[in-house]
Design goal:
The protein is α/β, with parallel strands linked by helices. Helices cover 37% and strands 23% of the residues. Helix 3 runs parallel beside helix 5, helix 4 crosses helix 5 and helix 5 runs parallel beside helix 6. It starts with 9 loop residues before the first strand and ends with a helix.
Protein backbone atom coordinates (compact mmCIF):
# COMPACT_ATOMS: atom_id res chain seq x y z
CA UNK A 1 0.00 0.00 0.00
CA UNK A 2 1.33 3.44 -0.91
CA UNK A 3 2.29 5.78 1.89
CA UNK A 4 1.08 9.34 2.03
CA UNK A 5 3.28 11.90 0.29
CA UNK A 6 6.03 13.65 2.21
CA UNK A 7 7.02 17.28 2.75
CA UNK A 8 10.59 15.96 2.79
CA UNK A 9 12.19 15.53 -0.64
CA UNK A 10 13.45 12.02 0.19
CA UNK A 11 12.32 9.94 3.15
CA UNK A 12 12.90 6.42 4.45
CA UNK A 13 10.05 5.13 6.64
CA UNK A 14 10.77 2.00 8.70
CA UNK A 15 12.81 0.44 5.88
CA UNK A 16 14.01 -3.16 6.14
CA UNK A 17 16.18 -5.00 3.61
CA UNK A 18 17.88 -8.39 3.93
CA UNK A 19 19.78 -10.70 1.62
CA UNK A 20 21.82 -13.38 3.38
CA UNK A 21 21.85 -11.06 6.42
CA UNK A 22 20.01 -7.89 7.50
CA UNK A 23 21.28 -4.89 5.53
CA UNK A 24 18.80 -2.19 6.59
CA UNK A 25 16.89 -2.56 9.86
CA UNK A 26 13.96 -0.22 10.57
CA UNK A 27 15.79 2.73 9.02
CA UNK A 28 14.25 6.21 9.16
CA UNK A 29 15.74 9.41 7.79
CA UNK A 30 14.91 12.25 5.42
CA UNK A 31 16.35 15.20 3.53
CA UNK A 32 14.47 18.41 2.80
CA UNK A 33 14.47 20.29 -0.53
CA UNK A 34 17.70 22.19 -1.14
CA UNK A 35 19.49 20.47 1.74
CA UNK A 36 22.29 17.89 1.82
CA UNK A 37 22.25 14.68 3.87
CA UNK A 38 25.38 12.60 4.44
CA UNK A 39 25.20 8.84 5.02
CA UNK A 40 28.24 7.59 6.92
CA UNK A 41 29.46 4.44 8.65
CA UNK A 42 31.89 1.60 8.05
CA UNK A 43 31.95 -0.46 4.87
CA UNK A 44 29.08 -2.89 4.39
CA UNK A 45 26.54 -1.16 6.67
CA UNK A 46 24.00 -0.30 3.97
CA UNK A 47 25.13 3.10 2.70
CA UNK A 48 25.24 2.34 -1.03
CA UNK A 49 22.21 0.05 -0.69
CA UNK A 50 20.30 3.09 0.56
CA UNK A 51 21.15 4.94 -2.66
CA UNK A 52 20.02 1.93 -4.70
CA UNK A 53 16.65 2.08 -2.93
CA UNK A 54 16.30 5.77 -3.73
CA UNK A 55 16.96 5.10 -7.43
CA UNK A 56 14.51 2.19 -7.40
CA UNK A 57 17.20 -0.34 -8.37
CA UNK A 58 16.13 -2.47 -5.37
CA UNK A 59 12.95 -2.54 -3.32
CA UNK A 60 12.65 -2.80 0.47
CA UNK A 61 11.34 -5.93 2.14
CA UNK A 62 9.23 -3.71 4.38
CA UNK A 63 8.72 0.01 4.82
CA UNK A 64 8.39 2.85 2.35
CA UNK A 65 10.76 4.88 0.19
CA UNK A 66 9.59 8.37 -0.75
CA UNK A 67 11.44 10.29 -3.47
CA UNK A 68 10.51 13.69 -4.92
CA UNK A 69 7.75 13.79 -2.26
CA UNK A 70 6.22 10.59 -3.74
CA UNK A 71 6.05 6.98 -2.54
CA UNK A 72 8.12 4.96 -5.04
CA UNK A 73 8.09 1.67 -3.08
CA UNK A 74 5.88 -0.23 -5.51
CA UNK A 75 6.38 1.82 -8.66
CA UNK A 76 6.79 0.15 -12.03
CA UNK A 77 9.98 0.62 -14.05
CA UNK A 78 8.15 3.07 -16.36
CA UNK A 79 7.05 5.14 -13.36
CA UNK A 80 10.56 5.06 -11.89
CA UNK A 81 12.00 6.45 -15.14
CA UNK A 82 9.96 9.61 -14.52
CA UNK A 83 11.39 9.87 -10.99
CA UNK A 84 14.93 9.40 -12.35
CA UNK A 85 14.47 12.53 -14.46
CA UNK A 86 14.36 14.41 -11.17
CA UNK A 87 16.97 12.42 -9.24
CA UNK A 88 20.31 11.43 -10.71
CA UNK A 89 23.28 9.53 -9.31
CA UNK A 90 27.02 10.10 -9.63
CA UNK A 91 28.58 6.66 -9.38
CA UNK A 92 31.90 6.10 -7.63
CA UNK A 93 33.40 4.84 -10.91
CA UNK A 94 32.18 7.91 -12.81
CA UNK A 95 30.61 5.51 -15.36
CA UNK A 96 31.95 7.53 -18.31
CA UNK A 97 32.18 6.13 -21.83
CA UNK A 98 35.89 5.47 -22.43
CA UNK A 99 35.65 5.83 -26.21
CA UNK A 100 34.06 9.30 -26.05
CA UNK A 101 35.72 12.57 -25.21
CA UNK A 102 34.64 14.48 -22.11
CA UNK A 103 32.51 16.79 -24.24
CA UNK A 104 30.90 13.85 -26.05
CA UNK A 105 30.14 12.14 -22.73
CA UNK A 106 28.17 15.17 -21.58
CA UNK A 107 26.60 15.68 -24.99
CA UNK A 108 25.32 12.09 -24.88
CA UNK A 109 23.13 13.04 -21.92
CA UNK A 110 21.50 15.76 -24.04
CA UNK A 111 20.75 13.65 -27.13
CA UNK A 112 17.12 13.04 -26.17
CA UNK A 113 16.45 16.69 -25.34
CA UNK A 114 14.16 17.83 -28.14
CA UNK A 115 14.04 21.38 -26.77
CA UNK A 116 17.71 21.93 -27.76
CA UNK A 117 19.17 22.20 -31.24
CA UNK A 118 22.79 21.21 -31.99
CA UNK A 119 24.19 24.64 -31.12
CA UNK A 120 22.18 24.82 -27.90
CA UNK A 121 23.58 21.45 -26.88
CA UNK A 122 27.18 22.55 -27.48
CA UNK A 123 26.52 25.70 -25.47
CA UNK A 124 25.10 23.60 -22.62
CA UNK A 125 28.15 21.31 -22.67
CA UNK A 126 30.46 24.32 -22.52
CA UNK A 127 28.40 25.86 -19.74
CA UNK A 128 28.44 22.69 -17.66
CA UNK A 129 32.20 22.27 -18.07
CA UNK A 130 32.64 25.89 -17.04
CA UNK A 131 30.49 25.28 -13.97
CA UNK A 132 32.82 22.48 -12.83
CA UNK A 133 35.98 24.35 -13.96
CA UNK A 134 36.93 21.75 -16.57
CA UNK A 135 36.68 23.61 -19.88
CA UNK A 136 40.29 22.61 -20.61
CA UNK A 137 39.53 18.85 -20.68
CA UNK A 138 36.62 18.94 -23.15
CA UNK A 139 38.51 17.15 -25.93
CA UNK A 140 40.31 14.61 -23.73
CA UNK A 141 39.29 10.98 -23.21
CA UNK A 142 38.35 9.76 -19.72
CA UNK A 143 41.49 7.62 -19.68
CA UNK A 144 43.54 10.82 -19.79
CA UNK A 145 41.96 12.14 -16.59
CA UNK A 146 42.69 11.66 -12.91
CA UNK A 147 40.06 9.97 -10.73
CA UNK A 148 39.03 13.34 -9.31
CA UNK A 149 38.56 14.89 -12.74
CA UNK A 150 36.49 11.89 -13.83
CA UNK A 151 34.20 12.47 -10.84
CA UNK A 152 33.83 16.15 -11.71
CA UNK A 153 32.98 15.26 -15.34
CA UNK A 154 30.42 12.73 -14.07
CA UNK A 155 28.85 15.51 -11.98
CA UNK A 156 28.69 17.77 -15.05
CA UNK A 157 27.05 14.98 -17.04
CA UNK A 158 24.52 14.42 -14.24
CA UNK A 159 23.66 18.14 -14.28
CA UNK A 160 22.84 17.95 -18.00
CA UNK A 161 19.55 16.28 -17.05
CA UNK A 162 18.62 19.36 -14.97
CA UNK A 163 17.86 17.25 -11.88
CA UNK A 164 16.32 18.42 -8.64
CA UNK A 165 18.49 16.05 -6.61
CA UNK A 166 21.92 14.42 -6.94
CA UNK A 167 23.10 11.30 -5.14
CA UNK A 168 26.89 11.08 -4.69
CA UNK A 169 28.44 7.66 -3.99
CA UNK A 170 31.83 8.11 -2.25
CA UNK A 171 32.84 11.13 -4.39
CA UNK A 172 36.26 11.61 -2.74
CA UNK A 173 37.40 7.96 -2.45
CA UNK A 174 40.85 7.42 -4.03
CA UNK A 175 41.22 11.15 -4.64
CA UNK A 176 44.14 13.25 -3.37
CA UNK A 177 43.41 15.82 -0.61
CA UNK A 178 43.54 18.85 -2.93
CA UNK A 179 41.12 17.35 -5.46
CA UNK A 180 38.93 16.14 -2.58
CA UNK A 181 38.70 19.72 -1.35
CA UNK A 182 37.91 20.92 -4.90
CA UNK A 183 35.10 18.36 -5.25
CA UNK A 184 33.66 19.44 -1.91
CA UNK A 185 33.73 23.07 -3.00
CA UNK A 186 31.99 22.10 -6.25
CA UNK A 187 29.24 20.23 -4.42
CA UNK A 188 28.74 23.19 -2.09
CA UNK A 189 28.58 25.58 -5.05
CA UNK A 190 25.93 23.48 -6.82
CA UNK A 191 23.89 23.41 -3.64
CA UNK A 192 24.03 27.18 -3.23
CA UNK A 193 23.71 28.24 -6.87
CA UNK A 194 21.21 25.67 -8.12
CA UNK A 195 19.40 24.84 -4.88
CA UNK A 196 19.99 21.13 -5.48
CA UNK A 197 18.93 18.56 -2.91
CA UNK A 198 21.68 15.99 -2.33
CA UNK A 199 22.59 12.82 -0.51
CA UNK A 200 26.26 11.92 -0.22
CA UNK A 201 27.57 8.53 0.89
CA UNK A 202 31.05 9.07 2.26
CA UNK A 203 33.79 7.96 4.66
CA UNK A 204 35.25 11.48 4.43
CA UNK A 205 34.21 13.39 7.55
CA UNK A 206 35.84 16.59 6.27
CA UNK A 207 33.56 16.40 3.23
CA UNK A 208 30.56 15.66 5.46
CA UNK A 209 31.24 18.70 7.62
CA UNK A 210 31.74 20.92 4.57
CA UNK A 211 28.67 20.04 2.49
CA UNK A 212 26.06 18.34 4.68
CA UNK A 213 23.32 19.84 6.83
CA UNK A 214 22.32 16.53 8.43
CA UNK A 215 23.82 13.07 8.74
CA UNK A 216 22.62 9.52 9.28
CA UNK A 217 25.11 7.09 10.82
CA UNK A 218 24.46 3.45 9.89
CA UNK A 219 25.77 0.59 12.03
CA UNK A 220 24.86 -3.03 11.31
CA UNK A 221 22.00 -1.77 9.17
CA UNK A 222 20.51 0.46 11.87
CA UNK A 223 20.44 4.26 11.89
CA UNK A 224 22.07 4.88 15.27
CA UNK A 225 22.26 8.65 14.71
CA UNK A 226 20.17 10.94 12.53
CA UNK A 227 20.33 14.66 13.04
CA UNK A 228 22.34 17.84 12.40
CA UNK A 229 26.01 17.45 11.49
CA UNK A 230 26.77 20.00 14.22
CA UNK A 231 25.40 17.62 16.90
CA UNK A 232 27.17 14.43 15.73
CA UNK A 233 30.11 14.90 18.11
CA UNK A 234 27.63 14.95 21.02
CA UNK A 235 26.20 11.52 20.16
CA UNK A 236 27.06 9.13 23.01
CA UNK A 237 26.68 5.89 21.04
CA UNK A 238 30.03 4.06 21.41
CA UNK A 239 30.31 3.17 17.73
CA UNK A 240 29.83 6.81 16.69
CA UNK A 241 32.47 7.91 19.20
CA UNK A 242 34.86 5.18 18.01
CA UNK A 243 34.36 6.24 14.38
CA UNK A 244 35.04 9.89 15.23
CA UNK A 245 38.08 8.96 17.33
CA UNK A 246 39.58 6.96 14.44
CA UNK A 247 39.09 9.93 12.16
CA UNK A 248 40.87 12.21 14.62
CA UNK A 249 43.78 9.74 14.82
CA UNK A 250 44.08 9.72 11.01
CA UNK A 251 44.19 13.51 10.97
CA UNK A 252 46.94 13.56 13.63
CA UNK A 253 48.90 10.97 11.63
CA UNK A 254 48.65 13.06 8.47
CA UNK A 255 49.87 16.15 10.33
CA UNK A 256 52.83 14.26 11.78
CA UNK A 257 53.78 12.93 8.33
CA UNK A 258 53.94 16.48 6.99
Amino acid sequence: MAAEGSDHYIEFRNVYKSWDHPVLVDVNFYVDPGKTLAIIGRSGVGKSVSLSHIMGFVKPDRGNILVAHTDITNMTEAELRQIRKKVTMVFQSGALFDSMTVGENILFSLELREDYNAQNKEDVVDGLLKMVDLQHVKDLLPGDLSTGYKRAVAIARALAAQPECILYDEPTTMVDPIMSDDLGNLMLRLKRQLGLTAIVVTHDLDLMRKVADSVVFLYRGEAIYFGPVSKLDECKHPHVQQFLAMDRLEIVGQIEET
